[in-house]
Specification:
A hairpin with a 4-residue loop joins strand 21 and strand 22. It is globular and about 45 Å long. It is an alpha/beta fold. Helix content is 14%, strand content 32%.
Length: 175
């Protein structure tokens, strides 16, 4: 682990992270959240990160738009191709948003030895993710979308729909 990452993750006190996030981005980060303030992180104005959430941007760019609300217990991690979350989004408790995965095609090597892949993850504006939703690498969620609780999103969801399930499927079109 690089020295800079080690310092950001373990040696920067949470009140300092909260203050720096407000001064740099005008975002509100709970002192009980774990936000890695790397050069790859962009938080929108008035974005809120609640307690016990983890936001990691050490491998790829992580952009979160203005006025996005991240509830308690959320995990967001950006892989090499990055993660983009739009403005005015509501991310429910205990959601997971990731943009990376392990390779697993070779049986004679461990997962760690095979390395990582990243396709990137994109979430549009004005999206609501229900509690416990998982948005995995390669997912593209359009604007105005509602994803039901405990759904798993791996593909593309068009604008202005309601989707739910594992994998998430469109069940209703919003008009």
């Amino acid at each position: 682990m690089k020295l800079q990452v080690l310092i950001r993750r373990f040696l920067l006190p949470s009140p300092i992270v909260t203050l720096l996030a407000y001064l740099r981005f005008k975002a509100y980060v709970s002192m009980r959240a774990e936000v890695e303030l790397s050069p790859l992180l962009r938080l929108g104005r008035k974005t809120r990160v609640s307690s016990f959430s983890k936001v990691k941007a050490s491998h790829g760019e992580l952009t979160i738009g203005d006025r996005t609300s991240i509830a308690t217990g959320v995990f967001i991690s950006a892989g090499e191709k990055g993660t983009h979350i739009g403005s005015d989004c509501l991310i429910g408790p205990n959601c997971t948003i990731i943009s990376g995965t392990f390779r697993y095609g070779q049986l004679d090597k461990s997962f760690e030895e095979q390395g990582h892949d990243s396709k990137g993850t994109s979430i549009g504006n004005n999206v609501m993710l229900g509690a416990g939703t998982a948005v995995l690498d390669g997912a593209e969620i359009g604007s105005g979308v509602v994803i039901g609780a405990n759904s798993v999103e791996t593909g593309r969801i068009p604008d202005n729909v309601v989707a739910k399930g594992n994998p998430a499927k469109v069940v209703f079109e919003r008009r």
